Amino acid sequence: METPPRPEQPVTLPTFAPVLELDPVAYDRMASDVRSLLGIDLAQYKPAQVWRRVNGFATARGLPNADALVARARQDPSLRQAFVDMLTINVSEFFRNPEAWDVLVAQYLKLMLLGQLSVRIWSAGCSLGFEPFTIAMLSREIAPHTPVYILATDLDETVLARARKGVYAEAQMAGVSPARRARFFRRVDNSWEAKPELQALITWRRHDLLRDPYEKPFDIICCRNVVIYFTEPAKVELYNRFRESLRPGGVLFLGATESIPNVRAVGLVPSGLTFYNRP
Description:
Layout: H1 24-38, H2 47-60, H3 66-75, H4 77-88, H5 98-115, E1 119-124, H6 130-142, E2 148-154, H7 157-165, E3 167-169, H8 178-184, E4 185-188, E5 191-194, H9 196-199, E6 202-206, E7 218-223, H10 232-245, E8 246-254, E9 269-270, E10 275-277
Parallel strand pairs: 1-2, 1-7, 2-6, 7-8
Antiparallel strand pairs: 3-5, 4-5, 8-10, 9-10
Helix pairs in contact: 1-3, 3-4
């Protein structure tokens, strides 16, 4: 009989502080190690921010620096996965910033669903699936029979595997009203599972926003709270590629604290806070 894994032991924090000053040589070494170990290219991320984040992550796990973190992650699959999750920022929730979703519905989604034969939506950086399932719920509330294609992509294969299952703990369901729970989910033990009605709308796919080709065209692209650690040139390239993947009249939906400073240079037009149209 296979011996079950022991629960993770509490970590005693070390007395040294995390390294905050960027060490360019050590950073380049870490970036190379991360690329080979995790398949994540940090070349277009902001080095100083990533350096602080990685070293803080290492310190919290009792490790003195990024080199030690990489060495331990090579041997420890659970730490390696936690490292990936930290770098790809897998934090979200259903109906995150509900007032922004209200605007999306009133100004864009409702008009598209009721006025078009079909609607195509991309959730870029979907993490554990909160965003694409939120889109699926709203779509079925507005237009139960309109064909909707929701592409949900993320860099992290592990979170995609969890998202595909569509199973969420009670604490993760905080943003879902009792009426929506009853309509779109079913209770499974102590968790909630998305019903086939929602599952059927979503196509899950691993995708690297900085390296992989973009599908097109889309009516709506949601990329919320994903690019905050990207360099400014990487963001410009990203927004240009999003524009090319939107149909004329399509909309890019960003996070509540994100904006495109020189928006017209990338061929988009601002349409209220966090929304940008392709003319």
